[in-house]
Every structure is written in C-alpha cells, then in structure tokens.
C-alpha cells in the first residue's frame, strides 16, 4: 500500500528506480515525465469522475481503447519465448503505435499485468508516436503491492514543483511525489506495480484488492466519457451548436491474456454492444475466446450441430482456468452466462492473429470499430435517422478510408435512380451530409478527404461562422491543453459570450499576422527584397499551421487583405490570393 507523509488527494508522480532491473527499456527518457494522479473515495460516482477528466481539457478522442487484461498472460520469465509469442508482442506494439499515429485515441487500463503495460508504454512513447497519447489508469489504492514508496519532494528539488493551476485568481501548488522502490522490493513480483507510461492515475480508496470491481467501475467511467457532449466538442469548454452526429464516442476493447475477472468485464461490454479485439496466442481468456470464435465461424449444414459441442468445450476450458483462481464454485455458476454472451454477441468479437499473412493490429481495431457502428445502426438505427451514415463517414475521416466514403456518398443515387424527383432530393441529402462532414475533415487536417467531400458538393463557403472559428481555434491550439486565459475566458455563463470570446481571439491572431506582414512589406525599399520578404513573411505565420487546408485559407486571406491596402503590386497580390 502506498504511504504518504500527509494526505495526498491529487498531484504528480515521478518514477525513480534503484536498479536497472526494474526499469523499462525507455524509462531513462520517461523518468523526466510526470503522471497526474487523483485519490478518490470508493463511492465516487462514474459521472463525477468523468466530469473530473473533462476538466483536464485533453484533446477530444476519436475513440476510447480499453485494454482488457489480467494476471494471466503467457509470458513466463523463466521460459524462452516462442517465435509465435515474440511475433505477437511485436505486432501488438507496432499496431498500437500505428493506431496512435493515424488517430487520436484515449487509452484506459486497470494498471495490472506489468508485462502488458510495459508493452503498451513502449508503443505509446512520444518519440515513437510523435505525440502525447492520453493513457488513463484506474485501480484500487490498496491493489498495488507495498514495494513502492511515494515520497513528497520539497519545493527546492525541481522546477516541476513550481507548477501551478489557476482557479479564481488563486495559485495553490500542485505537489510532486517520487515513486521509489523500497529495499525489500521483489522485481519478479511485479503484477501490480505502476508504470510511468500512464499520463493519469485514478486511485479508488475502497480498502480491498478486488480487481473485478475495479474493471467494472472503469467500464462505467468509460461509458460516461463516451456519451460526454463536452468531449465530443473539438474545442475544450465549448460545445458546437449544430454537431455533425449525436453518436457516442466509440469504445473498443482490446483483450490480451486475461483471467476470470477480465472475462466478466469483457462480457459486460459485449452485452451493451462494445466490440472487442481478441489477441490470439497471449494465453488466458483471450486464447479460449479466440478458439471458440474460430470454431463457430463456419456456417455449413453441420454448423448448428457442432456449435453445442464447441460451447461445452469452451465451458470446460473456463472451468480449468477457474481451478487456478479463488472462489471457483462461484465462478463456475457464472460460466454458462458468460458463454451465452460470447455466443450471442459473436459478431462483435474480432480475432487478431499476428502470424496470419499481412495481419495488422491497427487494421483490426479499425474494422472492429466499424463493426460496432454497423451493429448500432442495425439495432438502434431508427433512433439516429440520418446520423447513421454520418457516423460511418466520420469513421472514414478518422481512418483515412476515402474509397469507402465514396461508396457511402454514391450508393443513394443508385438506389433511387428510377425517380428524377427522388434523385434530386437524394442529391441534396448527399450535399448536406458532405457539408456536415467537411467541418470534421478540416479540423482533422485530412486534405484528401476534404477534396473528396468537395467533389460531392461540400463547400467551404457554406461553413457557418461558428464552425470557421472552431476550425481556426483547433488549428492554432492543436497541441495545447488549455487556451491562454488572457485570450479566451470560458467562465462566461452564456454560450454567445463564449463564442464572442473565441471570435475575438481568432481576430487578434489574424490581425497580428496581417500587421506583421504589412509592416515588413511596406518598409522594404529593394524590390527583390520585398518579394523575398513577402513570401517569407506569409510563410512564417502559415508555417505555424500544421493543418494544410486551413493554412491555405489563411494565406489567401492575408494576400487579399494586402492587395486592398497596397499601393503597388495590387494586381499581383490579388492574383496570388485568388
């Protein structure tokens, strides 16, 4: 159990190591990073914790990747790894890295199974992914063994101790704690050690080590985050008036190994329509579920006869696993219920096998999310209306699936070609849908997808003022956690006041770029120097923009404004802007 010299409710954790045996391969660099933590009561409601996470103002996630694992993982340190296991671990690490490069996920774990968490930490390292990936760990305050001592640091030891947060013009300090292994730390007993790969820890003070309860509580928090309207907004603290889609943030479970508690959490997620990617050859529950799904996949005449046999085999394998754990009798009573869920929700279970030809985990994760969207459309589509297709197009924008998006935008024309009136009405619907998705594509910097949408009638000129402001803010503040308080005040009660503050901020930034350009342009005497400086000065503010589409729009506006105020080269400047 962690021991603090004084009550610790929130702060930062920095990890230190007494010897190289306890270090991860990348910990030399990660040691300078701080992980935020919050100490919570066991009775904390999931809704309240979701609101706390919203307050961090992290970038809105494309989806939530929930790592499902347990103390069962096929990685005995005393045995040499097989070629299949080595290839599987390599595929997991590369797949998670590529997923973080392509998309912007949030990753959640239960801080258990250090081998899997180390694999996750290596995959999500900033130097490899190219960006910080929010990784949230949820566990009991008493779960982690007492072989680590968090020691509060004095304010003179590090500049990090001077970090502060602003609230009502007061600046209370945020404390930093060093995570140092104690002298009796057993490096082999590492199932519960915390890993510095997490950006945020949430410790529940429930006085127990019940992993199952923690897994289920984490799922409840994930659900609250999924339906959060605040997180679905691309700008922290501001909700768009006309959102593209009311669909929830997708949740995808990644099952690696796992014990009986993991099975309970996985089946609970499946029961509410959450897809799961099962990584084969990782042992435990993952291999049992993968084997069942592979056997149930054939659909020949004898499939129904064999299904009952395969289900009984699965139950026997689960009972064997129960014998290795406590409360085997109680778990045996639950096996039938869990197997029924696996059988009923088989379409939401996607098996990933690293040794298959051209197998990529990132593609499997994308397919699983698509499967989940289609499942929701088929079962609850009547409640979403036009948003069913919008959710699919958003998936295309996130994963760069241009060809599938083209199919979605053209299939209505083929269905209603018999009637000219229906065809015209359908064309208008396609244009309206493409216009909605254009906003998402612009602030996500998916240039090819923007071009595709414009082919089907979407127009930048039709974007609302609010959408343009959000795109500019998102582009200029893409890597920041919070906009500077002196520019944007999100404490305003009325929504119109918030929009006005955002608009002022964009205008200030734009006018600053324009003044910088004009001042340099009119003061240069040499014509060659003018031309060089003109291009350079336009590129300087534009070069700050990682979003190519928004950068082009900003450049055109600067040249057009310069043409209106210039006394020479007016036609040249106007031609460039056009």
TrEMBL record:
GO molecular function terms attached to this record: ligand-gated calcium channel activity
PANTHER family for the chain: TRANSIENT RECEPTOR POTENTIAL CATION CHANNEL SUBFAMILY M MEMBER-LIKE 2, TRANSIENT RECEPTOR POTENTIAL CATION CHANNEL, SUBFAMILY M, MEMBER 6
UniProt protein name: TRPM SLOG domain-containing protein
Coiled coil in keyword set: yes
Pfam families in the record: LSDAT_euk
TRPM SLOG domain ranges (all copies): 36-303
Biological classification of the source: Eukaryota, Metazoa, Spiralia, Gnathifera, Rotifera
Record keywords: Coiled coil
Statement: the UniProt record of this protein carries the keyword Chloroplast: no
Coiled coil: 311-348
Highest taxon in the source lineage: Eukaryota
A GO-annotated cellular component: plasma membrane
